[in-house]
Amino acid sequence: MRQAIIQTVGAAAVALFLACEVQPDWSDIARSFEGMTTSGGPATTGAAGSDLSGSGGGDATGGPGPGSGGMSTSTGMGGNATGGAPAGGPGGMPMGTGGAGGGMGGQAGTMAVVDAGQDAMVDKRAMDLVELKDALKNLQGFTYMNLCKFGNAGQDVTTLNGCNTSDICWATADLGRFSENRTIQIGGVAGHVYDVDLSVIGVIEPRDYPPAPNCTFMPNQPGTTISVAKCMDGFANQSSVTFNVYEFAVAAPAAKYYFNDVVTHPPHRVDVGDNKFTFTVNAQSTIKFTMDDLNGGEIRNCTNSISKSTKYTYAAKSPFGDNTPINAPTSVAQPFNGNWFTLSVIDARVH
After folding, report:
1. Are 313 and 219 in contact (CB under 8 A)?
2. Residue among 323, 325, 315 nearest 125 (CA)
3. How many whole angstroms separate alpha carbon 206 and alpha carbon 216?
4. Handedness of CA 47, 49, 55, 59 (dihedral sign)
């Protein structure tokens, strides 16, 4: 009997010992809930929430996440990506997918920020295009024509009848020097600065301007035919080179560009130009174009024509076109009996 009692008591002790070993430590669980409340929190106070706008949650080893994932109202408390109980545990509470919810929330939040940034960029460009179109409207399509009027003997040469290449024609009957200028007013918002990609097409007699460091060719110019150069003073060699000056002077920031520069002194001829250059101009400033034939005459054009640019089109989402051709104005008869050019704003930017 005594032996039976001892066996019974022993079995009970073993059962009690085992029960203690497998039961959870309730104080640990309480601390876990307390930690979740203070660090992760329910969805209404954390960053993850049911709207999936949070930044994710859970740690790398499983179990309830101590980060900002919090509790997902749709699937439970935030855990790691694989969910489940702490590492080595028997499964525990269904905490697995909350972390995924937090991660999705973070991804959605990031995508929203990216979309918002892209929208802001699109909106700014749209606003810039409106400003640029108004600011540069006097530059876009600006055309200069210098028609032949008198021949060497003072005869009327306003038509191409009897025109010979390399003839000289004159603007006045006395065959004297002729110069004129045009002012191009830039609009826009005071304090703004515009970078402008400008097309220059036309037919002009070439000229060799002073060499570097006075003048340098703008990038991607042909050089051997009329090209755009930037000079400190393109008139500096007028005592030795009396061919026509085509000057484009920007008031602010001050800079001077010339539309008909060539590498070497040319014979009597005219060139077809199809060039582009980039310059900077301040809002509400001016550009002054000057044509000065210096010795009074210009080389006559009998056959050369250019009705559209063969190199360039308007840029995508430019102020004045969208991947469209750059054409000469219909006001220019082709071939033009004299020299001419037209300007087109390929693209522009505000800064």
Report:
1. no
2. 315
3. 15
4. positive
The answer, yes or no, to whether the previous bond of 335 is cis (omega within 30 of 0) is yes
N- to C-terminal Cα separation, the chain: 102
**Dihedral pair phi/psi, residue 18, rounded to 5°:** -65, -40
Cis bond before residue 213 (omega within 30° of 0): yes
Region of 248 (left: φ > 0; alpha: ψ -120 to 50; beta: rest) is beta
Helix (H, G, I), strand (E, B) or coil at 8: helix
Among the listed ranges 8-17, 292-301, 337-346, which one has the minimum average pLDDT value? 8-17
Look over the chain and give the mean of its residue pLDDT values, rounded to a whole number.
79
Place of tokens 């600011």: 135
Beta bridge partner(s), residue 271: 204
Phi-psi region of 254 (alpha: psi -120 to 50; beta: other; left: phi over 0): beta
Task: Give residues with Cβ within 8 angstroms of 12, minimum separation 6.
Answer: none
How far CA 74 is from CA of 42, 214, 308, 315, in Å, comes to: 12, 74, 64, 50
Per-residue model confidence as pLDDT tens digits over 142-198: 999 999 999 999 999 999 999 998 899 999 999 999 999 999 999 999 999 999 999
Beta strands at 215-217 and 227-231: parallel, antiparallel or unpaired: antiparallel
Strand order in the sheet with 338-350: 143-147, 338-350, 193-204, 271-282
DSSP-derived letter for residue 301 is P
3-state secondary structure of 269: coil
- Higher confidence at residue 69 or residue 318? 318
Q: Where are the alpha helices (DSSP H) in 36-160?
A: 97-135
